[in-house]
Amino acid sequence: MADDVRDQGTPATGTDVVHRKMDDMYRLQRHIYDLSRRYYLLGRDLLIDELRLAPDETVCEIGCGTGRNLVLMARRYPHARLMGLDASTEMLRSAQAKVDRAGLTDRLPLVHGFAERFDPAEAFGLSEPLDRIVFSYSLSMIPPWREAIEHALTSLKPGGRVHIVDFGDQEGLPRWFRRILFWWLDLFGVHVRPELIGYLRTLKASGRAEVDIRPICRGYAFRADIRV
Q: Based on the structure, what is the number of domains in the chain?
């Protein structure tokens, strides 16, 4: 782990193997991750543009990976308070290096932790809950993804928002394309979750949150904004 990356504890029983596998997978991949993913992780820049962050709003990207999104957010919103969390110490090595090269070390704290149970106050020294939480193509890699979203909702201020961009239900695309895509993503531990959109719709129907879901490229991906 990079020297400046803090650790918020070890994984719970049953998740250690998963996170060790992630580190094994990304130990080499992290060096080419941004270059290779730019062609099929659609909607990330749109999410960043539409955040429209106010000064001093606190934003945590869960599954921040190489730090690519955080650096872009920091440049787009220089007065927001940004922070990143990731379960892979290998990816955090790349993230810390990217943040350091951008001259943003003091602005972008990075923490090793787990989406379903991290404590924002302990991890980042916050005195209040977060204003925003971002999941950018990370829920498709988090096995307890429901728990991750539920935990995110409890980590926000009243009126806070969760922003999601991830693979969609693919319903508007040919079956052959979906088969190839699912096979390719599975090689990297990524799992398209059509049930994720159903879960978000149930969340809206229950009245627990306002949820806006927008498909990208015929359902290849989707954007979702959740307001507590």
A: 1
